[in-house]
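Re: beginner question about structure tokens

> Can someone show what the tokenized structure looks like for a real chain? I only ever see the sequence side.

Sure, here's an example I had lying around. Input first:
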Amino acid sequence: MNPQNTVERTLSILEAAGHSEHGLSNSDISRRLKIPKSSASYILRVLERRGYLLRDAGSGKYRLGLKLMSLTRDMLTHIDVREVAKPVMEQFVNVTNLSAHLAVLDNGRAVYVEKVEAQGFVKMDIWVGHRLPVHSTSIGKVLVSGMSDDEITAILNLRGMDRITKKTIATVPRFLKEIENVRKFGFAIDNEENSLGVRCVSAPVFDLQGKIIAALGTSSTIMQLDDANLSGTVELIRSCALQVSEKMGYLPRRPR
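And the corresponding structure tokens:
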């Protein structure tokens, strides 16, 4: 076999196996990729022996093996979510002229770890390293939404629920009800709950295991981020957060 063709065919087989929900047989691969059965069989045996594919003894179908997953996991552990998110955040800012920020959870607080400022006169009081409560911010709501209610309650009891503005959610039952909506709809809104006149929108960033590792969001004045612009901004933020998640190895669930 031509070495170049062998490499191309090997990668095509791995990609096909990765995209197949129930696995592929030698015949499936040969037919789908237009590879001679003898060539496909040789490549499949090598990939199986090296742990890159697993073969079901009953059906004879191949699917991705643990070796490939292990390599992927090792690679992803060395990726900094800030480096992955920044180009996506810059794209969001260019499209919307709204600032973008990225936050993580640390010791029961939401902490900004990256920020891209929009051009203009309106500047949000946000900086890298700024720590904020989870109960009054959209980033905080997103960051704790992957936790159990008991874990969230423990954070709230530890950190308190100061009423920062008249719109701040300041009781545990109301906050847990708010988190139900964050889980259901996949985003959070801070509607003047941390600062009067300011509205924030955030969405979760997931890792390979589907765990929330960061919150991607935007903040602006109520006038700039008004009701007419809110739904479009929410969809953009969710899309950007999903882009970052996928670059971190996250595979969203496909509707059945």
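Each token stands for a local structural state, so reading them left to right follows the chain. The chain has a mean pLDDT of 89.
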